[in-house]
Design a protein that fits this description.
By secondary structure, the protein is an alpha+beta fold. The chain is built from 4 helices and 2 strands, in the order αααββα. It has one domain.
Length: 135
Amino acid sequence: MADSDATEEQPFATVADLEKRWYGRTFTGTDKEDHVKVLLEDASDLIRQYPGHKRCTTATLRRICCAVARRTLENEESDLNSNVTNMSETVGPVSQSYTFGNSGADMRLWPSEEKELGVGRQQAWSYDPFEGAKP
């Protein structure tokens, strides 16, 4: 179990933050509020798995957290047809094929969000072979 302080247990965003970013949606005071809180906590935990999150601003962490939670909620609320990313039909002799995007409603970060968290970012460093590693 990793050492953490109380601030690391707090989600990066609140239900109100998500509502501000998702015009027309209200979760506060509804039966979904607790579910949204859990999704924000899960999204924050996912973000914390990237070591680069410590270099990001609070606003960036809040924005990514809300985006991940929103995508998860949209996926949960979508019907089967709106989750289709590729569809192929043939009329004679009848064939259909569908490809579904994230049908399991997994929480995922987009590549652009991972880049903001430092994934794939190059770092310069040097090593002096005569002095060796320093503690």
